[in-house]
Amino acid sequence: MRLVLRALALSLALASPVTAQNAVPMQTKPLDPANLDRSVSACTDFYQFANGGWVKRNPVPAAYSRWGSFDELQENNQANLMSILRTASASGNAQATADMKKLGVYYSSCMDSVGAERAGFQPIKAELDRINAIKNRRDLESEVARLHSRGVPLLFGFGAQQDYKNSTSVIAGVSQGGLSLPDRDYYLNQDKRYSDIRANYVAHVGRMLGLIGENSTQAAADAQKVMTIETALATPAMTRVQMRDPNANYHRMTAAEVAQLAPGFNWPAFFAAEGRPDISTINVQNPEFLKAADALLTSASLDDWKAYLRWHLLDAAAPSLSSPFVNEDFRFSSTLSGAKEMLPRDKRCTRATDAGLRDALGQAYVSQYFTPQAKSRALEMVRNLESVFHDRLQTLGWMSDTTKVMASGKLAAFTNKIGYPDKWRDYSTLTISPGSFFNNQVAVREYERRRTLARIGQPVDRTEWGMTPPTVNAYYNPSMNEIVFPAGIMQPPFFDPNADDAVNYGGMGAVIGHEMTHGFDDQGAQFDAQGNLRNWWSAADLSKFKTGTGLVSSQFDSYTVLDSLHVNGKLTLGENLADLGGLSVAYAAMEKALAAKGRPPLIDGFTPEQRFFLAWAQIWRQNITPEAQRVRINTDPHSPGQWRTNGPLSNLPQFAAAFNCKPGDPMVRPDSVRPVIW
Questions:
Q1: Which of 128, 377, 501, 615 is the most buried (most CB within 10 A)?
Q2: How far apart are CA 153 and CA 6, in angstroms?
């Protein structure tokens, strides 16, 4: 469930409060028959059969772009976090730890709407003055470095990363970046939908610049300058599909070679400004982009660049400023999300605190809401599925014994992370002060920047987590060869200690199998047991593997989402492979459990096999706005919920047998195009 998307900015406008008690009422039965639509055959459209009743009763709330099982559970987790933060922000708690006090001050500063209204854009005034004072190329590059250090993404990405081909070390990385719209195609695609968004975006930038005092003529001109620069940066950027190829994103260079590639930029000064003048090795994700960005620094005027810097500073700060900025920020973001209302301020501040002081809040969350017993049960399920995956590897007819040995070794080397980190971040050097929330955000960004860049040149810290404990998600990291399941997802409908095995294996079991299969999808299969980018396949086996993955890619290309908009089978290939493999492994694990315990009676008229597939379908139920769906099709490596349900199930003979589906039914794909991989 690797989801690497930049979320739409949180907005901090004035809004009526919502109490933690307003949590979304959760489904009380593991599988509720009221959620079904029995007017549709399971063999025709299983997603509608399993979820049609729920979909009809649960339209997208006005403040959201999507509503589904993930969102329901996340709302309840957020209510629990809000309760923690309200307690932390209450004055006079002498027993609070240092981290809890920081949480309280951070959340309170976010909630201070009166202070935000009074300050207007004063929190960024000094930085705007620095940008306006730029007189030459040296000043410009100095400000680029300064804004990077303060968490403002512009021109290119820079940070620490694990070396793809030496997974024990951390090196510096430079990547394409500098855009504000969701993807390069939003700048380059000439379809009317995109040109309308571009026109709206330019008008939005102009309105925002007007709020910091630019007259209408200057603001409109500066907005066009921003669009011109960002379009120039989008042109050499890789597509989302191209970025899925790890070899295409690996170009390890010395600092001298980077300086030769992009000679106009003062790299030693940039590294020094970032506090790492000693950087000697850098991975350049997209050399053509870096060359183009370097040339653009010379070809575009200083005035153009100053407009670009002002905008990116303002864009990063807008959600933390007064209501005119927040409202305009939301107005434009809603054209991409389809949301009709802003979230209440306390929900936005809870999300912002979770994103900022992630380990402090995460530690408080797991101490109250995640038990050692839950962690133990989850680990037991992970080990059961790993055992089944190992057994299935040995019986693959298309893979040679030599490659099976390598695959089994990689599986055995998996690191399993359950619930929360073993080591929490130390916030003792971070100062959080009453007053401007934007200033506190900058303090957190600078802290995270220092912490991250300090890793360059050091051994990899394998205790690091990429998600916060309350997150309703999971992931596989190929460079670490690890599967990670935060505490937030190990609740109904994914995992329910009171549910039958069929439901838990169809929910959390399939999610675990999904993450395991990522180690062997079209990307993960390129990394070895130690997390190094290295081919460990025989040529014949790799050819057979690519034939199977090609069938999956073509299958999902055929699915229509909106109008003439199709799923992108190449962009979503890894997730679709993981769904297919995860279901196959989880189903085999369920059968093993049933054989050991004996078959239970029918529940609500359904067999265990049928309940397994119903449990899988219910975790992907959702309603989504057309605007958000379009953005996700362009940017999200996950297929829409309907096709995450129907797509892999139509490839499984076990599903057809469970619901007595026949050849020719829409939910049964012919053997000639049915992939058999993991």
A1: 615
A2: 12
Residue 116 phi, psi dihedral angles, 5° rounding: -65, -40
Q: Which residues pair with 158 in a beta bridge?
A: 174
Given 183, 222, 359, 515, the catalytic residue: 515
CB–CB of 513/542 below 8 Å?
no
Query: For the segment 449-506, what is each residue's pLDDT rounded down to a tens digit?
Result: 999 999 999 999 999 999 999 999 999 999 999 999 999 999 999 999 889 999 999 9
> What phi, psi does 467 have (nearest 5°)?
-135, 155
Burial of residue 165 (CB within 10 Å: 0-12, 13-18, 19+) is: middle
pLDDT tops 90 at residue 563:
no
Residue 37: the pLDDT is: 98
Going by the DSSP 8-state scheme, the letter that residue 159 receives in this structure is E
Residue 75: active-site member: no
Mean pLDDT of 311-324: 97
251 within 8 A of 284, measured Cβ to Cβ: yes
Q: Give the pLDDT of residue 564.
A: 85
Q: Which of 315, 496, 579, 636 is catalytic?
A: 579
Q: How many beta carbons lie within 10 A of that of residue 236, not counting itself?
A: 18
Active site residue 579: yes
What kind and span of H or E run contains 624? strand 622-624
Residue 163, φ and ψ in degrees, nearest 5: -70, 120
**Spatial CB neighbours of 173, under 8 Å, sequence gap ≥ 6:** 157, 158, 159, 160, 161, 282, 283, 284, 285
